[in-house]
Structures are given as structure tokens and as C-alpha cells.
Amino acid sequence: MSAQTYNQAIVELAQAGLSALAERKQSTKAIQTPAAESHFLCSFLVQALKERRFSKLVADDINTWIRNGRSMGAGAQLPALMQRIDKQYLALADSKQLGDKLQAMLAELGEQDWVVIVDCDVDTKLKLDSDGSASLVIDVSQFEQHIDQGEVVKAINIFVRADEQQLAAAAAKHGLLLSQGNKKTSLVKHHKTYVLQPNNQQPALGLLVN
């Protein structure tokens, strides 16, 4: 039996939370408000953490959601987050030919007047003048060597300066799950680094569409 992946673990966690919330809603005595739901899910997560109900792969997520739920209440939007995870991760069931899907996304973004650069070396800090246009840069060696026969075989760093939700929507449309953006690791000034992993197997929660 193969080990559980992060993607599988985060979906299991989200579905369990949504199932528990659905059972709670069936109770006529339960207060049905966003704040009450957030409090309920916080309690559910605390108990799950104590019981070690879920994989260690999602322990950081559980702790973060508990912390956000306690500090932000309904503002943490935990039910909505779990719904987005369930919907978007399940849509990635077919995570083959990601190289071809990446090519298709880049072509579409180019048609939308993004500046798309995949033919230059990105091995030191660079500055790109895109005149305010959204821009995406991939190191040429990664673009050529980390894709084999349409498959992503090694992680690809994608440097992006754009509306993050526009990027998330484009990636989801083409069946790609990108990592969360990281400005600190970017080699292109004013851009964030997003990582595309083989088979969409991210080691942490990916970039989601709101």
C-alpha cells in the first residue's frame, strides 16, 4: 500500500470537516451562524489534533486553521476554505501531461497580453520591464529539461507578477496546481515564485481560486 500524499491528506481533512459540519446542521438545536460554524470547526480540529486523526502531513494546516479560527472567528472562513480544497483538489484527478497543460496555459496568457518569457537563463537576480503588464518568467533550462514528452518530470519555478487570483484561475482551468507564491525566493524583481510539481503533488497547500 502506497503512502498517503499531501494532496490525499488535505482532501481527507477537508471532507471530514465538511461532513462534520453537515451533521451539525441537521440538528435543529444548533445555532446556524458563520461564527458558530467557525467555532464548531475549531473544536473539531482541536479534537482531531489531540486524537491524531489525520496525517502529520496536514498538521501545520490544522494548527494554522485553529489559530485563524480563534483569532478571526467567522472571518477565517473555514467552511469556504474546506469547500474550495475539496472542489479544486478533486478536479485534479487527471494530473497527466502537465507539461502540455503548462504550454496551453502560457499560450492563453500570451493571448491575454501577458509578457511570457521562457527562453532566458534565470540563475541570478533579474529585473523585467513589462510596462505594467502581467508577466511570467521560466528559466529556459527548466522549461526545456524538466518537461519530457509532455510530462513535468522535475519541479518548475514560475516567476509571476500579476493578480494572483487571475493566475490561480488560469492554472485551475488547465488542471495545474501551483504552490503558494513566495516573494523571498524569487529571482525576478517584483515577482513571486510559484512552483509546479510533477503530478501536481505539492508538499503543502497549493494556490486556490477564491
Give the SSE layout.
Elements: H1 6-25, H2 34-51, H3 59-72, H4 78-90, H5 98-111, E1 115-120, E2 135-139, H6 140-145, E3 147-148, E4 151-152, E5 156-161, H7 164-173, E6 192-196
Parallel strand pairs: 1-2
Antiparallel strand pairs: 2-5, 3-4, 5-6
Average pLDDT number: 94
Distance between the termini: 34 Å
Strand order of the largest sheet: 1-2-5-6
**Largest sheet descriptor:** 4 strands, mixed
Structural class: alpha+beta
Q: What's the oligomerization state?
A: single chain
Q: Unreliable stretches, pLDDT < 50, 5 or more residues?
A: none
Q: Helical amount among residues, as a percent range?
A: 40-55%
The rough form would be described as elongated
- Which value, in Å, is the CA radius of gyration? 19 Å
Number of helices: 7
Strand portion, in percent?
A: 5-15%
Q: How many β-strand runs? A: 6
- H/E topology pattern: HHHHHEEHEEEHE
